[in-house]
Write a structure and sequence with these properties.
By secondary structure, the protein is α+β, with helices and mostly antiparallel strands. The protein is built from 17 helices and 26 strands. The chain is globular.
């Protein structure tokens, strides 16, 4: 048996950065984290500061290594995972020319429909011939909501041409982190895949390349795209500057890594085809690995390149799931009310305590939340309906509606949304592989709540497995990529021995009828209200 080796995984989430030490024998060891806030400069605009992000990476690594100096000599590699679908233009020196466009940013929605797709025959609001070209070459296509990377690049070229001309490369978050560590402009196939500018027609993923045809069709410059490498490839070594800022020794191998959608799938342990996992963080998704590419353009469900080279991940990605609970939490438990007692003495309440209060409140409302429905579409939606104009709503409120009903309806509404997407994911998966698994693995911050785990099990009528250290799934998944890359693990299935199944939640059959009824009504809210959403938010 090989000696124990460590990987330093850095997970750059939507609002939090974590640096994590992972052992090849024991799994998760320790971590440090810091916030990385979202910025809202104007309506429909969501950004993040690359300077804040860089400092978050440096500081969390530095703090972690200072706490464990004896472990530094055992670190075999550094790797990164991150939120996906963000856009950062940089100059030749790697200096950011603006803040990141967040994946949540919607400012290019009108441009996408009115100019990028101008004059084209449309199906489901999308240009038929252009979409067919994208599907043929890239295996997927940009949505009409303007959130895709290529829409933001095209918008910059149209409205900020000077900035676009100065841009040497466009980076996603993981790519920026890799640049900080190595000075190299490199991306992984999974990150490149969701630009929809990659030629993926060759069955050998190592032969994929940027498509000149798609760049010409969208008016974008192919030379501004990054060098392509597999997630398992060693990009370079830690630079002197990165060592000086973090304390991580110069020359340690930096493994390319993968986006959080892919690393969470690996980190959940749902490696085999047909095994589903659910991740509820700020955003969320339901996904399974798939051996071949597939797409359902109407419901924006499809495959992207997996973090495991040669495979795909089939998923329904949804925009604001855990983020919807945070929004409601801040409305109903505002910080101003939580920080003082009646005699005005400090009364700081931790997030964990607030979430425990929410769980207790949810349990005071019956399954079905007394008929209250909640739609978690606070920033539009991507799948299974691709519509930037959607917004959240509490439906069927009455004078007898309680705070407990509101919180339970949020738990249930998020589960209904996942059920909706899961129906399409499972349908495609079964057609492509014939494989299915009754058990669902649950990761992300929401899975820390036993109450929410039970709600998911009841709504989906499936066993739900709560995994240990659920918020570390991405870090564990990208560590697995590094362990396989360096030959420390022979394959990805070795991750199973360092993961923990904390508890299995079984569905309460007595709740099936009420949830089936409410789910049917939940799905009706979109078609019955979408024209109103368009008039209010277009």
């Amino acid at each position: 048996m090989t000696a124990d080796k460590l990987i330093l995984s850095v997970d750059i989430g939507t609002t939090e950065i974590k640096s994590v030490l992972v052992s090849s024998k024991d799994g998760y060891l320790d971590s440090r984290k810091t916030a990385c806030p979202l910025l809202y400069p104007e309506k429909n605009s969501v950004e993040q500061s690359p300077q804040d992000m860089a400092e978050g990476v440096y500081s969390t690594i530095r703090e972690l290594l200072e706490e464990h100096p004896e472990m530094v000599q055992h670190i075999a590699g550094l790797t990164f995972t991150s939120q996906m679908g963000n856009t950062l233009p940089v100059d030749k020196a790697g200096k950011p020319l603006m803040n990141f466009f967040s994946w949540m940013d919607e400012r290019t929605a009108r441009f996408t429909m009115d100019e990028l797709y101008k004059g084209l025959i449309r199906i489901e609001g999308q240009p038929l011939l252009m979409i067919l070209k994208f599907l043929k070459i890239s295996g997927g296509a940009p949505g009409k909501n303007g959130k895709d990377i290529l829409c933001k690049m095209a918008w910059l070229k149209r409205y900020h041409s000077n900035l676009y001309r100065k841009t040497y490369k466009f980076l996603d978050v993981k790519d920026f982190a890799v640049f900080l560590a190595t000075g190299r402009f490199v991306t992984s196939y999974d990150i490149a895949y969701i630009t929809w500018l990659l030629d993926t027609r060759n069955k050998d993923q190592s032969q994929w390349s940027w498509s000149p045809t798609l760049h010409r069709m969208t008016g974008l410059d192919i030379e501004k795209m990054l060098e392509l490498k597999a997630s398992t490839e060693i990009v370079g070594g830690v630079t002197t500057e990165f060592f000086e800022r973090t304390g991580l020794p110069e020359g340690i191998p930096v493994i390319n890594g993968s986006g959080d959608l892919l690393t969470s799938a690996i980190g959940s342990g749902a490696i085999d085809m047909g095994n589903l996992h659910i991740n509820i963080g700020t955003a969320g998704w339901v996904a399974t690995h798939c051996p071949v590419a597939a797409v359902d353009i109407k419901h924006y469900v499809g495959t992207i390149a997996s973090g495991m080279p040669g495979k795909f991940l089939l998923l329904s990605k949804q925009e604001t799931l855990g983020g919807a609970l945070d929004w409601v939490k801040n409305m109903l438990y505002p910080k101003a009310l939580l920080k003082e007692t009646p005699d005005e003495t400090p009364n700081e309440i931790s997030n964990d305590e607030i979430y425990a209060m929410i769980d207790e409140s949810v349990n005071q409302s019956p399954p079905g939340a007394n008929g209250v429905l909640f739609t978690p579409w606070l920033l539009g939606e991507r799948s299974p309906v691709n519509d930037a104009n959607l917004r959240g709503q509490f439906f069927n409120l009455g004078l007898d509606t309680t705070r407990s009903d509101l919180f339970r309806s949020v738990f249930e509404g998020v589960a209904f949304n996942i059920r909706w997407g899961m129906e399409y994911v499972e349908s495609i998966s079964q057609k492509k592989t014939g494989a299915t698994s009754e058990e669902l693995r649950f990761i992300g911050g929401a899975s820390k709540s036993a109450t929410w785990c039970q709600v998911f099990s009841d709504v989906l009528q499936r066993p739900v497995v709560k995994m240990g250290n659920p918020q570390m799934a991405c870090a564990m998944g990208v560590a697995a990529i590094a362990f396989v890359s360096l030959g420390i693990w022979k394959d990805f299935k070795e991750i199973e021995r360092v993961l923990e199944k904390v508890r299995i939640f079984h569905p309460n059959k007595n709740n099936k009828a009420v949830y089936d009824k409410l789910y049917k009504q939940f799905r009706e809210l979109y078609p019955k209200n979408r024209k109103i959403y368009a008039k209010l938010n277009a």
